[in-house]
Amino acid sequence: MNRTLRIGTRGSALALAQTGLMAERLERAGATVEIVTVSTPGDRSHAPIAEIGVGVFTSALRDALANDEVDIAVHSYKDLPTAPDPRLVLAAVPTREDPRDALVARDGMVLGELPAGSRVGTGAARRVTQLEALGLGLEMVPIRGNVDSRVRKVLDGELDAVVVAAAGLSRLGRLDMVTEFLDPIQMLPAPAQGALALECRVDDVDTEHLLRSSLDDQASRAAVTAERAMLAALEAGCSAPVGALADVVEDLDDDGRTVLRLSLRGVAATPQNELLRASATGDLTTAEQLGRALAAELLDLGATVLSGPGSK
Ligand SMILES: NCc1[nH]cc(CCC(=O)O)c1CC(=O)O
């Protein structure tokens, strides 16, 4: 391909960092690329995500792609609405970063060391509900804004701690700030957390082929496919307290041969905001069915079917 590929990104430090990484990899694969920043309503507003709705970070970028203003869009996968965009194709899910949530606390503290009444910043219902379930007496403070500004609130002494995605800090080169990586047994991440989604126009087969062949990672794609299928089946948006994590694990088949399997864990809440946890395993090739089956089990256990805006 000898055309210059325009890669669309949001303008936040995190978005620019992760798009820069993808641009480098595409150049190494022989492509000529140019980065184009697209401003989104999510970047301009400070209102809670629950008010401004799912897709606030991604719709403007998707429109720019569909309108031929850019050729590739790089998204944080967890920010994408679950409904597919018929104008676009998800051409690559690159190897996923650490999917866990991370605690950044004052004085190097881990969760168990935070005194009761400590002020912990997070706006995401999924994080709030799972932290409250630990019964530590923490005071949850709703915050929003980019990763930098959240972490700064701890450095400034405004908050005792914040919970953010480890992947965000990693891509910003700030993993040194993490005082504890939260174990998924206590804190399941948002579906697709730590993964990127690279889209192109559905009729741009050259770009699709390039992205697929140079960036797509099959195991990461299978894992996030299962997580997102669970989310979609619960009809939960980004503000819903739904967490999911699929790990690719080694298993033995009937003939004693090593095979790769998906191990999916999920968490959802009842109407009384009690947490329900469940898990299931399946094949990488049937990731979607696995996600739907786990959602069905959670619904059977009494999980609320949520609708409306919501992804973190
Ligand atoms: N909507 C915010 C958002 N979208 C993606 C990430 C982190 C990186 C990732 O999960 O890929 C974050 C910040 C956070 O949740 O702390």
UniProtKB/TrEMBL annotation:
PROSITE patterns, sorted: PORPHOBILINOGEN_DEAM
Keyword terms: Porphyrin biosynthesis, Transferase
Domain Porphobilinogen deaminase C-terminal: 223-299
Gene Ontology, cellular component aspect: cytoplasm
GO biological process: protoporphyrinogen IX biosynthetic process
Cofactor(s) needed: dipyrromethane
Coiled-coil ranges from the UniProt annotation: none
GO MF annotation terms: hydroxymethylbilane synthase activity
Cofactor-binding details, from the entry: Binds 1 dipyrromethane group covalently.
Gene3D superfamilies the UniProt entry points to: Periplasmic binding protein-like II, Porphobilinogen deaminase, C-terminal domain
Chain positions found as S-(dipyrrolylmethanemethyl)cysteine: 238
EC number(s) from the headed UniProt entry: 2.5.1.61
Assembly and oligomerization: Monomer.
Further comment found in the protein's record: The porphobilinogen subunits are added to the dipyrromethane group.
Family: Belongs to the HMBS family.
Role of this protein: Tetrapolymerization of the monopyrrole PBG into the hydroxymethylbilane pre-uroporphyrinogen in several discrete steps.
Protein name (database record): Porphobilinogen deaminase
Organism: Kutzneria buriramensis
